Structure to design on (94 residues):
């Protein structure tokens, strides 16, 4: 497919990762948050005071609504972290 400004679209490889132990697929190069949303996951955590569901808010790494544990590292901003083959992602407040 050819875009008039961006040029030819490139085929992206499908990679595999897990979310709370569940195997999921993603396109190479997309953010963890985008991959989760594409897999139907909309709630990333719950607020600490009111326990309200939180998802992606800013999508540019300024807020903390999308933080999760990624490959053992706490408080990773998933909106600006690229998903990788074999990555293990866990909801922070599950």
């Amino acid at each position: 497919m050819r875009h008039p400004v961006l040029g030819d679209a490139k085929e992206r490889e499908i990679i595999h990762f897990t979310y709370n132990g569940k195997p999921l697929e993603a396109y190479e190069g997309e953010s963890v948050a985008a991959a989760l949303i594409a897999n139907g996951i909309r709630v990333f955590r719950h607020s600490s005071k009111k326990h309200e569901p939180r998802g992606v808010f800013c999508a540019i790494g300024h807020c903390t609504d999308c933080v999760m544990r990624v490959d053992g590292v706490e408080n990773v901003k998933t909106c600006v972290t690229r998903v990788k083959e074999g990555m293990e992602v866990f909801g922070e407040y599950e």
About this structure: The CA atoms of residues 10 and 32 lie 20 Å apart. The first helix runs from residue 32 to 38.
